[in-house]
């Protein structure tokens, strides 16, 4: 019996690294959605100025920082989410509350009627392999281009695992890889939608073992139903190189819906268009990503998205007059010193006479890759040439973040905003779970009329309970 127990423990210890590998094979450049409870768990269990400030982190950085977590009851929630724990503590729950207060000078252009905000995160383990997460927050009313598009529940998600498979039923955002400025194919700038998601390892002949994931969403837009789906394959080629291939669609109708979830979306579009519908009902996009990891902290990444491009002749492209609509994101993340962190990214998106990347191409407006006026892809949108930079410095109780982006038109013959935004945040960790921040933001955007030029300071207090 003693030998059998040792074998079981050894099997569990070997299974944990395998679990993390299977669930997080794309962790090198996978950022959780901005409302993910992972940020709250890390801020509560390992409070540092950057964690309390909810500084954007990819999953590989979360896993590194999980080692800082003190032995607290909810530590296993964080480790299970990151694939570092085999089981959840069954039938346990927790609530995390964050309160924020804001003070503005009288001449600040960034003052709002809301002088405070709240965020409540609830987590309940329904069993050893099932976790329910819910978030209530009014923070969206202060930020973004369309605050009215969001409600007070940005995330409600049930996750459960069966062996190497992970399942999710949720009303939340989704985000796939990409950069810190945003993801090209599936991004979290849009309001939450209901979706089902599945992920599991897949063995492909001669190509080895890949991690497969797929989601399916159905929601109402402009009074009518639309369908959205995506699937992705990722693989770590060796200790330094990772590769991903993904495709997504947004459809105004979905004939033979079961077939759409079983075959490549590109083939489904071709079959259904020839049989029933024609064009202008199925917006197809595809993406390829490559990530290079020279060491444990630095990353170089490239993502290339195809919205429209003429298909090869053997796939039906012969004689087609399809305008090219592509997007590219090239970025680097590195730590010049142990206290600093730097991110630089460049983004290019095509523009064409009928709208360019993510556009409706002259079809029904719902066909465009937007929801409630917000992009489902990269926040820069179509016809853009943009640069993004973020610098962070953290030492003891102090945290400094500088972040900015600059965008211009890719083609001058198309309309579009151009300009920049620059943010500064200087924070001091006043107590273990509170943060005092001095913030400054300057924005200068112009299209055809007078520019949107605003700047201002504010003082922000955050307390997590």
Can you offer a commentary on this structure?
The protein has 465 residues and is mostly beta strands. The protein has a single domain (2-464), classed as Porin (Beta Barrel). The chain is 14% helix and 44% strand. The chain is built from seven helices and 20 strands. The strands form two sheets. The protein has an 18-stranded antiparallel β-barrel. A two-stranded antiparallel ribbon has the order 14-15. A hairpin with a 2-residue loop joins strand 2 (116-127) and strand 3. It is globular. Mean pLDDT is 88; it is low at 1-26.
Topology of this protein?
Layout: H1 2-23, H2 37-45, H3 49-52, H4 59-65, H5 75-81, E1 93-103, E2 116-127, E3 130-137, E4 155-162, E5 165-172, E6 193-204, E7 208-221, E8 224-236, E9 241-251, H6 257-260, H7 265-277, E10 282-292, E11 299-308, E12 325-334, E13 340-349, E14 370-371, E15 374-375, E16 384-395, E17 398-409, E18 418-431, E19 434-446, E20 452-464
Antiparallel strand pairs: 1-2, 1-20, 2-3, 3-4, 4-5, 5-6, 6-7, 7-8, 8-9, 9-10, 10-11, 11-12, 12-13, 13-16, 14-15, 16-17, 17-18, 18-19, 19-20
Helix pairs in contact: 2-5
Outline the low-pLDDT stretches: 1-26
Rg over C-alpha atoms, rounded to the nearest angstrom? 23 Å
- How many strand units? 20
Number of helices: 7
Mean pLDDT: 88
CATH architecture: Beta Barrel
Strand content: 35-45%
């Amino acid at each position: 019996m003693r030998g059998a127990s040792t074998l079981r423990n050894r099997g569990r210890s070997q299974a944990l690294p395998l679990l993390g590998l299977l669930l997080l094979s794309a962790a090198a450049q996978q950022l959780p959605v901005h409302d993910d409870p992972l940020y709250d768990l890390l801020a509560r269990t390992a409070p540092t100025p950057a964690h309390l400030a909810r500084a954007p982190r990819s999953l590989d950085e979360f896993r590194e920082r999980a080692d800082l977590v003190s032995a607290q009851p909810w530590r296993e929630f964080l480790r299970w989410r990151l694939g570092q724990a085999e089981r959840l503590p069954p039938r346990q729950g927790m609530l995390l509350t964050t309160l924020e207060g804001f003070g503005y000078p009288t001449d600040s252009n960034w003052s709002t009627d809301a002088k405070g905000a709240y965020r409540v995160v609830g987590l309940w383990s329904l069993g050893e392999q099932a976790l329910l997460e819910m978030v209530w927050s009014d923070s969206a009313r202060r930020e973004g281009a369309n605050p009215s598009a969001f409600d007070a529940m940005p995330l409600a998600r049930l996750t459960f695992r069966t062996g190497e498979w992970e399942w999710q039923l949720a009303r939340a955002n989704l985000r796939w890889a990409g950069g810190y400025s945003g993801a090209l194919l599936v991004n979290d700038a849009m309001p939450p939608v209901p979706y089902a998601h599945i992920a599991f390892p897949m063995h492909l002949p001669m190509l080895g073992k890949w991690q497969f994931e797929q989601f399916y969403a159905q929601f109402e837009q402009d009074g009518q139903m639309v369908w959205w789906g995506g699937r992705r394959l990722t693989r770590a080629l060796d200790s330094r190189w990772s590769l991903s291939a993904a495709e997504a669609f947004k459809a105004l109708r979905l004939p033979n819906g079961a077939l759409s979830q079983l075959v490549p979306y590109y083939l489904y579009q071709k079959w259904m268009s020839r049989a029933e519908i024609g064009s202008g009902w199925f917006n197809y996009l595809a993406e390829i990503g490559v990530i290079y990891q020279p060491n444990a902290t630095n990353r170089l990444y490239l993502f290339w998205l195809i919205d429209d491009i003429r298909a090869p002749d053997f796939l039906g492209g012969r004689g087609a007059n399809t305008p090219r609509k592509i997007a590219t994101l090239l970025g680097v993340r590195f730590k010049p010193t142990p206290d600093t962190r730097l991110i630089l990214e460049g983004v290019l998106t095509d523009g064409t006479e009928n709208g360019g990347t993510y556009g409706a191409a002259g079809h029904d407006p719902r066909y465009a890759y937007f929801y409630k006026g917000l992009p489902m892809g990269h926040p820069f949108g179509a016809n853009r040439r943009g640069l993004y930079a973020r610098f962070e410095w953290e030492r003891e109780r102090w945290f400094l973040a500088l972040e900015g982006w600059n965008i211009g038109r890719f083609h001058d013959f198309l309309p579009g905003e151009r300009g920049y935004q620059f943010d500064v945040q200087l924070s001091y960790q006043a107590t273990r779970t509170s943060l005092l921040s001095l913030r400054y933001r300057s924005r200068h955007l112009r299209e055809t009329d007078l520019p949107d030029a605003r700047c201002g300071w504010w003082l922000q207090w955050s307390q997590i309970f």
